[in-house]
Amino acid sequence: MYKTQPNPQLTYTPSPPPSNPQSTIITRTRSHTREAGRMKSDLKFIAVVFVIVGVLDRTSVVNGGQFKGDYSKLSGIIIPGFASTQLRAWSILDCPYSPLDFNPLDLVWLDTTKCLSAMNCWLKCMMLDPYNQTDHPECKSRPDSGLSAITELDPGYITGPLSSVWKEWIKWCIEFGIEANAILAVPYDWRLSPSKLEERDLYFHKLKLTFETALKHRGGPSIVFAHSLGNNVFRYFLEWLKLEIAPKKYIQWLDDHIHAYFAVGSPLLGSVQTVEATLSGSTFGLPVPEGTARLMFNSFGSSLWMTPFSEYCQSENVYSKHFSTGRKKKHNIYHCDDLEYRLNYSGFPTNIINIEIPSVVAEAYPSFGDELQANLSNMECGVPTQLSFNAREIADGTFFKAIEDYDPDSKRLLYQLDKLYHGDPVLNPLTPWERPPLKNIFCIYGVDSRTEVGYYFAPSGKPYPDNWIMTDVVYEFEGILFTRSGNLIEGNPGAASGDETVPYNSLSYCKNWLGPKVNITRTPQSEHDGEDVQVHTDVEHQIGADIIPNMTRSSRVKYITYYEDSESLPGQRTAVWEIDKANHRNIVRSPILMRELWLEMWHDIHPDKKSKFVTKAKRGPLRDEDCYWDYGKARCAWAEYCEYRYVFGDVHLGQSCRVKSSSADLLLKYV
């Protein structure tokens, strides 16, 4: 157990309680109330004591108690999202005018020091050829491997916490005794399109071997955790697998190797922020110019992988057994049903792009002054035309063709769209998802945050790559659409809003995987003893329509809404979790999500479980850090779960509140 040392500058040190702590706690509380109040802000930096439990086997021990569960056979496989894997240099690059050079295995993504001090060299190691997706002649980068590649992108005292991705997730696994060889990360080069991942790195062959190795090593199936773009990667893997395994053995392979799939923050219909990045760049929070960020982003083959597309359009897939065959591939063609043309916006709340096109066609924003001035004078004589494009018109290339004469990147993007996506030999990723044929699927995402759903662009008058300027943004929030300037606009807003990155209609598309009868439960996110828990059973669900629960909510409480179906597909379960105010990028660090995942997994492997899903009737503390001191009652809160137990090194009352040694018995309430 790790010991937390007190700050030597603090004079307050709790002493161990006497034999009758209840009679003396009140006295000590009165004498130190003011001092504890002053200490509250000073103690934020103090590390929490982590209780590392023993390795869980068929009978596991937590805090002195025992509960049943066969964790010895389960493995967890993590597929990270976009820009969530470290990239390391695989070249020697001398950077002029800078003391920082790139040597093999040096960190490239993300090394903020080299990004700031040697940006030109850093870009050489990051950018790819937009046509053939090869590395720069002077520098190449490759993804790191192992769990360290996805925990912190830029390790360091300051940069580490700011770039932390899966670190908290791994901590939870360690706290609950998951063995080191049971958690496997499968990092990938997130700059590449799916076909190039296989062609260059044999990524999907390696992923298949990872599942098979985990099964052989652990003796049981794996649990897949995928976040953001990682879900698109996993979807492509399932389609690729159909070409590698005999059709009669495909489902059996999935049943043997995959127990459950947790899809976290999945952009099932794409994200509109992808379109913004293609026109004005995405800096990823780095202090780089937007034009530079645009050059880098548009060189990636994956830049279009999360392009928004219509839920009403399908394509004909032409399969090819091998990626290196010389056959000419037939291109996929969209086939849209009547709803695409009868309804506006391709299922999205509004048009995604509204862009002004100059009435006079000029050379695409030259970089030299004389030609630029001549073109600008010509543009002033004409009235620009505003064009609007929905998701289908972006996914099929109509939008990029419309601005081809005004933007040099359009030709490159059209090539990538046609070659890497519409012409993909395995799957056109820009088509709606069907429910994967897996036994257990949990679709999890955040809701009710202000999320971008549309943009207004106009020519900036500057040379490429800064030739477009964003003039306005359309947001969805609490069932309404409004612009950055505060004006309400018409459209088709959903019942809720997205997670700040992906719109609600894209996140919630997995509700189509639920059957005609759905059980809905809404509970507070925080620990609760059953108050404000609402349950509706056998709610009618029309496939293709959203499920809007008729439940009350308090404006001061954050909720989780569970949609669960275990009846419509024999032997399969489907659940959708909507977590209020959960941010897209930070959801994998949410303690609420990790608590629910832990309880659901523990419930699944328990031999005495009484229901298909873990009960939602009560939520109590599971870890010592979940316990705290209740100053109003002068005792530890949640007396049923927590008790006062001083350990040397504790510096405040709340730190001495710990889970009871018999808390393992309380877990039986979640069966």
From TrEMBL:
GO molecular function: O-acyltransferase activity
Pfam family, one: LCAT
GO biological process: lipid metabolic process
Superkingdom of this protein's organism: Eukaryota
Region annotated Disordered, chain positions: 1-35
Polar residues bias (residue ranges): 1-13
PANTHER family, sorted: LECITHIN-CHOLESTEROL ACYLTRANSFERASE-RELATED (PTHR11440)
Protein name (record): Phospholipid--sterol O-acyltransferase
Organism: Lactuca virosa
